[in-house]
Write a structure and sequence with these properties.
Oligomer: single chain
Distance between the termini: 19 Å
Helix content: 25-40%
Mean pLDDT: 88
Number of domains: 2
Largest sheet: 6 strands, mixed
CATH topology of the largest domain: Rossmann fold
Shape: elongated
């Protein structure tokens, strides 16, 4: 039986009158990327800080690699790495000096810290810039350097708190590849993100957190199944909308959903035949849609369905082909 590498039970963390975590619970097995999805202020960073022993929970319990984060924080710190929302590097040191310093904090010898530094800088493609001061680095390079520093201790568990926030699309894809490579080499990752497609792309399992508590959990497909099946979506010229509403009602038997911000109309689709039926009826009515298609639910739909509001984030950058989660 596999022992969970992270276990959180009913954790509450308050700041004065504010409950940043309100009975938070989650657990997951080693060797995966677990995605924690939620908007700003949901409690994601507070949970990471509790698990990384930077904050004590007000109540509840948490273990990492089987070690209680309150009872033995020093032992926890030898098993983990942490990369936060902002690159925690010294701009006036070189990239190499930054990583070696963290290696020494892990009690590595000078020789071993130097060897591992070269190894991780090579893996994240920063060897050419290793001896430059970090103040000359781009934002994406600083974020990759921060990841290198978190990797030098070879942690069992790596906490990544919104590692791609605010960086360019190319750097985001580079970091995605690094994260996947780390897991293939045996590191377990807890990834917090606001980006819906990032969680969908990377995480084997996803927890949706809102207002300090877990509100849904499962694989991306399981979460999408909570919303329902596929839908036919279309937009038409404004003067044709009332006609198309009636047409869609005749196909589905119910009123179509209309997004007031862009006029997009949706009806449930039992199969691709629903799309063909709608297309045929539009043709019979001599109406050419501006856009039409069959779409499966997204994590955005999940979040909206179970919280009543959108995740309130922008686009996360370029999409990649979906990968298998076998």
């Amino acid at each position: 039986m596999t022992t969970n590498i992270v276990d959180v039970h009913d954790v509450v963390r308050t700041f004065g009158e504010v409950k940043a975590l309100d009975g938070m619970s989650l657990s997951f097995e080693p060797g995966i990327i677990y995605g924690l999805l939620g908007p700003n202020g949901a409690g994601k960073t507070t949970l990471i800080r509790v698990l990384a022993t930077l904050l004590k929970p007000t109540s509840g319990s948490a273990t990492v690699a089987g070690i209680d984060v309150v009872a033995d924080p020093d032992a926890v710190r030898t098993r983990i790495g942490l990369a936060g929302q902002f690159a925690a590097v010294d701009a006036y040191q070189t990239g190499r000096e930054n990583v070696e310093m963290v290696g020494r904090l892990y009690n590595l010898s000078k020789r071993e810290a130097r060897r591992r530094t070269d190894e991780v800088l090579e893996r994240i493609d920063l060897m050419d810039a290793a001896d430059r001061q970090v103040k000359t680095y781009s934002g994406g390079m600083r974020r990759r350097l921060d990841l290198a520093a978190s990797m030098v201790g070879r942690p069992e568990v790596l906490f990544l708190d919104e590692p791609t926030a605010g960086i360019d699309p190319r750097s985001r894809l580079d970091i995605w590849s690094l994260i996947e490579d780390l897991v293939e080499r045996g590191t377990t990752i807890l990834l917090t993100t606001q980006y819906l497609d990032e969680a969908d792309q990377l995480a084997a399992r996803i927890g949706v957190i809102d207002r300090g508590t877990m509100i849904a959990e499962g694989t991306a497909d399981e979460l999408k199944d909570m919303v329902g099946g596929s839908v036919v979506q279309l937009t038409v010229p404004q003067e044709k909308q009332s006609t198309v509403v009636g047409l869609l009602r005749s196909v589905s038997g119910d009123e179509p959903t209309i997004d007031q911000s862009n006029g997009r109309m949706s009806i449930p689709a039992s199969s691709a035949q629903t799309l063909l039926t709608v297309a045929r009826k539009l043709e019979e009515a001599s109406i050419t849609p501006d856009d039409i298609g069959l779409r499966k639910p997204t994590l955005d739909d999940v979040f909206l369905s179970i919280t009543g509001h959108a995740a309130e984030v922008g686009e996360a950058g370029p999409k990649r082909p979906a990968r298998s989660r076998e």
